[in-house]
Amino acid sequence: MHGILFLICISQVLTEIRSDHWNEWSSWSECSRTCGGGATYQERKCLRSSRSKEGCEGERFKYNTCNNEPCSQEAQDFRAQQCAAYNNATYGGSLYTWLPYTDRKSPCTLYCIPKGTRTVVRLAPKVLDGTRCKFNAFDMCISGKCWPVGCDHKLDSPLTQDLCGVCGGNNSCLNNGTKERYHWVDIGLTPCSASCGVGVQHYQYRCRDRLSGNQVPEGRCAKSQKPSEKEKTCFKRQCPPVWKIFPWQACSVNCGGGSATRAVRCMDTLPDGRQHWLHDSFCPQPKPSTVRPCNPRMCPRWYAGEWSPCSVTCGWGEQVREVLCRHEGDMFCDLNAQPVTRRNCTTIFSCTDPDAGQQELSFGISHVKADIVVDATETKHLDLPKYIVSDWSPCSATCGISVRTRYVRCQVQLQYLKQMVDLPDAECTEPKPNLSEPCNLEPCFKDFKWIPQGLTPCSRSCLGGTQETHLVCVHKISNLTQPDENCIHAEKFPIERKVCNEIPCPQRWRIGGFGECSRSCGGGLMNREVKCIQQIDVSLDRVLNLPDLMCEQPAPPTSRDCNTQPCPANWAFGHWSQCSVSCGVGIELRPVVCQRITQDGDPLDVDEYHCPPTERPEAERICNMSACPELKIKELQMKFFQMNPMDKVRLFVGGEASILPGTSVLILCPVNGKDKKKIEWLKNGKPVRPNAQIAISKRGNLRIKKVWPRTDDGKYTCVIGNKKSSIKMTIIEFMHAMQETFLREQYLRGYMNNDSASHVDPYDKKVRPLQVLVSEWSPCSTTCGHGVKKRKISCELIAEDYFEVFPLKVCKKYGIQIPTVMEKCNFKPCTKWAADEWSQCLNDKCLKKDYSYKVRTVKCFNEMNSSIVHDKYCHKASKPPTQKECKNPACQPVWYTSEWTECLANCGESGYQTRMLMCVWAGGELPAGRNCEGLARPVLLRPCFNHCTHGMWTSQLKPKPLECVDESNYCKIVPVMKLCRFKNFQTKCCHSCSSKAQDPPS
Asked: If we measure between CA atoms, which residue out of 263, 228, 226, 259 comes closest to residue 244?
């Protein structure tokens, strides 16, 4: 025992000496950057010789941030500066402009991209201290490692900026629903508006909550902050030629039935959005109509009625007529063309002297021209001559060809004669209206008939056609040919049909329609099928295919030129080159040139500005070859526990191990896909230095001779490439091993066997039983209210000197039943007493003078759901009191006396009267017990004389029954005082005494 204590003391002394071999820390170095956050460090040197096996424990360098003020907006990115430093150095024999690239897996390695390519090149193993590990973050690279930096610019600080921009904040500015909480986010583009050809896509924006990240109604975001509408063109595939239909032009007439036209063209859409006019044969048939009828409604017309009779029977009078406008819709008759509704009329020239009237008229006619020209003052009384027309006469016939006539006269009105006079037609300057016009009446159907006139042409030129009687419509008198509609009512003529041209069909060319043009521009070809055939059956359309020489020569052409217009320049590209790598991610290249197709169909390279720059195809692309052999470390997730002394133990990375002191250990790191000689080992994060006790084999395994506590405990990690795996090894005491051995021996000896399965022991490759070990239940987690109790379940393989613990899923894989780890217990509800507030000090509960008590309600509550349960579920001893004494000045005892009884004596004799005395509390009628002791007692007996003034009855007379009522306000306390046994109280308080059980006799 003393020896063990001595070894412990020596070990502690050595530990203190070992940690005390560092020199003092140096002063802080110069900051790696002048702005934007750099790094500075302190260094200390180990005073032990480099040949020493132990060295110094702890870190040699200590880092901190510095110069965290932001750089100016014009300053170049720090990583970009480091890449730009290589612009003057050749790479692969060429000079490049280098652009920064941040690798997600190795952010502190300097990767750059030559401008104009997609090749990522590693230019330095690590970036300069102070370079940001990623964009828009505080983390920085120091000595090739990415250090977490908080928003307070301190290393390893957990503080971050909240959505309000506050370092270490809790988004408090957003909790009250301010505008900063909601913002517009871009959620992508709408689908292309066109399924082919050039379309448009619009950027979409939605309102989002910064706190929850969920989409919210747009009203919560500020409309003024919503990004302006943006769009971009999109192209899926080239559209086939389609009909482009232009709008209808105006109708040729406003009424009466006209026609409207429109342009319809076959258009081909080029990839750049321009349209090219093609021949109609390139578009689907039939072609949309280009003419349609329009404005069928009737044109407005003036209709005039008959003139009324002349207003006088002699001399000059006046005639009138009705004029109507017939129209449809919103069109009206021309007011300038409205017929006159009034005119002068005469029957005889003078009612008294016809000769004088005739002379006057003759004078007027002969001098009217002179009057107009000579006397300028008189012309104001003259109108200009104009043609006057009469109504049309009826049609000359009721059907067929007919005319109607009317009178047309050139007249002028003489003011001084007050009449119209006729003038020669030459005096009217306007065109003379027609005197007659044809009447548009229906034909005289009875005048027409059908006559046979030979046969119709044969319906076929060969293989048997048909022809029938040819009928012609003629006039019955003139025999002139008429339109067929004139004979619609004529008698039908019998029609004969016969077969004709029953001869074989000659050879002929069957010509198909031209197909699509082989090119959309630059001269293409349209092909069609041309065959020499002879038809042999009409109904089945059977034909014989003949050699071309048997048909008329020359044969129709089978192709023709099309789309001869020059082609626009377009991008052309070659085949992709092989991938630059044989595995992993590389680059493929291809040539891209701008070309124009000549009339001969040959491509011609032109300057790139002739081609649309936005449509330039990619000249480089990333290629993903087959995955490079993946580096893997085969881990064994297992806990190894040594129970008895062993010379050597073999362990695997990936689990844990508990080893007894003095045991040699071999730790294996199984690696696939790389040379095992490159395996490196770390202990607690520091490289393992081989010595006499610890060594690394040629296969990369770690050997430790005779492990000891505190010296060889720790975490051992094997590292190869970017893969690593660890095992935690603990050196245990024999007492600890004995405790774990006791339970395992019961299973090993078969005393507590459960379901088991045969399993290969990874330690020595022997087959041993794999079984589940179950510990005792733990105490219940609670004493009430549904608690739980737990036990440990483990999947183990037990040997004589050790046992191995595997994940439970291994036992499940073999079908071993896994017991429950947890069970519910103590179902009794958790309860407690809950008391209400105390009441006021009660006036009707007086205890003694100046004292009463107050009360409260106490109930038993279930703590889980706050429901009221029966009092038996709560602990009676802990129940709070329901009443307590309190001071009440209103509690004063007083004597209470009832009214005097009637005089107890016979009529005309002296007797006595009594009354009841009771101690009660003031202000009420509740008994106060003996609290009135010491108070003056009232008189209870006094003499009286019974005068019997109200009459009396004798024993021979039966008294009249009285009503059973209380005659005093104090009767309610008579039963309480047990006074109903007295007759006088029974009488005075009949109701109160009769409602209570009778008191026993005194």
From this structure: 263
3-state secondary structure string across 869-912: ECHHHCCHHHCCCCEEEEECCCCCEEEEECCCCCCECCCCEEEE
By CB atoms closer than 10 A (0-12, 13-18, 19+), residue 837 is exposed
Task: Please report the beta strands in 799-952, taking only residues with DSSP state E, as ranges in sequence order.
Answer: 802-806, 822-825, 831-835, 851-855, 858-862, 868-869, 883-887, 893-897, 909-914, 917-921, 941-946
Token pair of 581 as six digits: 């790598």
Phi-psi region of 692 (alpha: psi -120 to 50; beta: other; left: phi over 0): alpha
End-to-end CA distance of the chain: 97
How far is it, in rounded angstroms, from Cα 602 to Cα 348?
101
| Residue-wise burial string across 864-879, b where 16 or more C-beta atoms lie within 10 A, e elsewhere | eeeeeeeeeebeeeee
Instruction: Identify the H or E element spanning 180.
Output: none
Q: pLDDT digit string (tens) for 730-767?
A: 998 888 888 788 778 777 777 666 678 888 888 888 88
Provide the 3-class DSSP secondary structure of residue 494. Answer: coil
- How buried is residue 116: exposed, middle or buried, by Cβ count under 10 Å (0-12/13-18/19+)? exposed
Label residue 148 exposed, middle or buried (CB < 10 Å: 0-12, 13-18, 19+).
Answer: middle
Give the tokens for residue 729: 């090894």
Cα angle 248-253-258, degrees, rounded to a multiple of 5: 70
Q: Which of 895, 874, 790 is nearest to 830 (CA)?
A: 874
* CA–CA distance, 684 with 715 (Å, rounded to integer): 5
**Number of C-alpha atoms within 13 angstroms, CB side, residue 403?**
6
For residue 240, CA distances in Å to 265, 290, 316, 327, 568 come to: 14, 22, 82, 49, 18
Contact predicate 992/974, CB 8 Å: yes
- Cα 977 to Cα 847, 986, 992, distances in angstroms: 19, 13, 12
Residue 146 pLDDT grade (very low, low, confident, very high; cuts 50, 70, 90): very high
Bridge-based pairing of strands 38-43 and 465-475 is unpaired
Lookup result for tokens 């003391």: 9
Residues 6 or more apart whose CB falls under 8 angstroms from that of 157 comprise: 148, 149, 150, 151
Do the beta carbons of residue 3 and residue 39 sit within 8 Å? no
DSSP letter at 797 equals E
Q: Pick left, alpha or beta for residue 136 (phi over 0 → left; psi -120 to 50 → alpha; otherwise beta).
A: left
Whole-number CA gyration radius for the chain: 64
The DSSP letter of residue 482 is -
Contact predicate 886/856, CB 8 Å: no
Helix (H) or strand (E) holding 666: strand 664-668
As beta bridge partners, residue 866 has none
| Mean pLDDT value of segment 534-552 | 82
Share of the chain above pLDDT 90, in %: 11
Residue 609, C-beta contacts closer than 8 angstroms, at least 6 positions apart: none
How confident is the model over 418-472, as pLDDT tens digits? 678 888 888 888 899 998 888 867 788 888 899 998 888 888 888 888 888 889 9
Full-model pTM = 0.32
Single-letter residue type at 1000: P
Give, as one character, the DSSP assignment of residue 792: -
Structure token pair of residue 844: 């009707």
Q: What are phi and psi of 93, to 5 degrees?
A: 85, 5
Q: Is 114 helix (H, G, I), strand (E, B) or coil?
A: strand
Query: Which one-letter amino acid corresponds to residue 91?
Result: Y
Question: Whole-angstrom Cα distance, residue 787 to residue 822?
Answer: 10
Side-chain half-sphere CA neighbours of 719 within 13 A: 13
Query: Do the bridges between strand 639-642 and strand 656-659 make them parallel or antiparallel, or are there none, so unpaired?
Result: parallel
Residue type at position 507: Q
Tokens 């009447």 identify what position? 439
Query: Beta strand 858-862 with 140-142: parallel, antiparallel or unpaired?
Result: unpaired
**Nearest to 672, CA basis, from 615, 629, 736:** 629
- Cα separation of 833 and 870, whole Å? 11
Q: How confident is the model at residue 6 (pLDDT cuts 50, 70, 90)?
A: very low
